[in-house]
Write a structure and sequence with these properties.
Largest sheet: 8 strands, parallel, barrel
Order of helices and strands: EHEHEHEEEHEHEHHEEEHEH
Structural class: alpha/beta
CATH superfamily: Divalent-metal-dependent TIM barrel enzymes
Mean pLDDT: 91
CATH class: Alpha Beta
Strand order of the largest sheet: 1-2-3-4-7-8-9-12
Strand content: 15-25%
Radius of gyration: 19 Å
CATH topology: TIM Barrel
Number of helices: 9
Length: about 290
Amino acid sequence: MSGAAALAGAGLGLRRAFLEEAAERARGPGLEADFLELAPDNWIGVGGRQGRLLRALTERIPLVCHGLSLNLGGTAPLDEGFVRAVGRFMEAHGALLYSEHLAWCADDGQLYDLLPMPYTAEAVRHLAARIRRVQDLLGQRIAVENVSCYAVPAQEMDEAEFVCAVAEEADCLLLLDVNNVHVNAVNFGFDPYAYIDRMPPERVAYLHVAGHYVERPDLLIDTHGAEVPDPVWGLLEHAYRRLGPVPTLLERDFNIPPLGELLGEVARVRALQARVAGEQQAPHAGAGHG
């Protein structure tokens, strides 16, 4: 997994709303996050005070980069200049991994949304070819994320099969968003636990968890604007039992509470990882003794 193999523990998505406090905590007793994630799209070329604060963080805490605008699923030519800029940014900050979405987000300009792909063999080949090119440019495997959606343009296979097929065809890693699995399971009526069971453990580099908005009992909106709800915690625990205590990142994009509250959720992730790992090791603790 190259840099992904160095990921561990519970991380936090870095946002400008708490950048200064995070840097201050990192200089003192610690930020209490095992790694950070940011969108390089929003940070490439940033200097001044914010650039210095970012540098202070990435010198102390491992970083992963999570892209927003590469348009892996689109038909416009891949922005190879941007990919090279991402590579330079990752090198400058020692970033361990780059991830992007299994979606398209541009058509003669950015659409500022992540739109769903058709679940077809043609789409698998199209995505895989573009992912392989990105990996060639960066000189390492990337991770691709399953996305939340509210309609599917065409469907020859189900979502879990599509995600696995892309990863296999591209020989890339997966960023498994547990909240997105739950959101889509409610909206489209499938079993989220069975979805997790179909993910190849050897390809899952890390997980995302977040909150969402309940529009109706049968319609969830992926907002990243609330605490992680109980059904997502339950699905996360299942993911750990199926995949092991995979590194996991908490996302929060608006309605951002004080940093201490976010770190409380990060601590809950870490405690769940430790509990499941301990339970899985316990049956073997007495092995070899008569």
